[in-house]
Amino acid sequence: PMANLYFVANGTDWRSTLYPPDNMKRPTGPTCDGCHSVNYDIQTKQVAEWNVGCEKCHGPGSTHVEQPTRGNIVNPARMDYISANDTCIQCHSQGRPLTSPIEGKYYDWPVGFHIGLNLQDYWQLEEHNLGQTTFTHFADGTAHKNRMQGNDFVQSVMYRRGVTCFDCHDVHGTDNYAQLRKPVNQICLDCHGSGSRNGPREATLAEHTHHKDGSTGSECVACHMPKVEVTIPGVFVSAHTFAFITPAMTDQYKIPNACTSCHTDKTTAWATDALRHWPERSPWWVE
Questions:
Q1: Which of 90, 97, 168, 179 counts the most CB atoms within 10 A of its CB?
Q2: CA-wise closest residue to 240 among 133, 163, 130
Q3: What 3 state SS string does 30-75 have?
Q4: Does the predicted model carry a pTM greater than 0.85?
Q5: Per-residue tens of pLDDT for the chain, all 287 residues
Q6: What's CA 227's distance to the chain center, in Å?
């Protein structure tokens, strides 16, 4: 059954038991293989390495292995924030190659791009028109399909201020949820702690969130990164614009909001009324 294609036991290769050794027979080239490999060749369907290996993000590494220097390897941490984020956005986004189709095929990844080049010369993010709900976006512009973190992130204030994906995520792996560098609230409050220039202005987290410390509602991501879609059972898409999605936006755009996504027994009217009673709420806030 199709569901079995999504299950790979820990410690095994995602492709080895599902496909024949001859890569020419693989059906996944145009949609999957470019991101699940290093240097995929669309003509021969051969790769330098299956899965996301070191060279996917750091470029060719043989010279660096022989004589390690800063000058003969790419380190995204030393790149400008656009190029650094493009290291991740090349695969964590929905879009299309600038040349499409290629030999009659529609590829779902930036064919020909590798670290050190400009992603914008190879890749166009999925377009969306504000006010229209599409296959990939809600009407307010929030993305809701699989691997669209990049589509969201480039719209955010965080991106414009130079934050990178790996400021929050450790791509080499951690024991934290979503490969975060630290537990979720800790990583947010390192920059957005009470009294910092980046807010919040309240003295304590509980005052800001109106939820008890340690509760689900007191987690920064509960309001600023709500789950807006289910891709496959148990796997959710979390918004990466970091904007607070209000109950009123649910009524207008049919996008899940941060309040009733947790308070599932309540209505958007209840949530909107509750927000009106938050003491720090501005009377000029447009719902």
A1: 90
A2: 163
A3: HHHHCCCEECCCCCCCCCCEECCCHHHHHCCCHHHHHCCCHHHCCC
A4: yes
A5: 444 444 556 666 655 555 665 666 667 778 899 999 999 999 988 899 888 999 999 999 999 999 999 999 999 999 999 999 999 999 999 999 999 999 999 999 999 999 999 999 999 999 998 999 999 999 999 999 999 999 999 999 999 999 999 999 999 999 998 999 999 999 999 999 887 888 788 888 999 999 999 999 999 999 999 999 988 888 889 999 999 999 999 999 999 999 999 999 999 999 999 998 887 666 666 55
A6: 12
The residue type of 143 is A
Q: What is the DSSP string of 154-221?
A: TTSHHHHTT--HHHHB-TT--SSGGGBSS-HHHHHHHHH-TTSTT---SSSHHHHHSS-TTSGGGSHH
The CA distance from 250 to 245, in Å, is: 8
CA dihedral 79, 81, 83, 88 (to 10 degrees): 110
> Quick one: which H or E segment has residue 270?
helix 268-276
Residue 226 near residue 239 (C-beta atoms within 8 A): yes
Contact 156, 75 (CB under 8 A): no
CA angle 238, 241, 243 (to 5 degrees): 100
Secondary structure, 3-state, 70-127: HHHCCCHHHCCHHHHHHHHHCCCCCEEECCCCECCECCCCCCCCCECECHHHCEEECC
Q: How far apart are the first and last CA of the chain?
A: 46
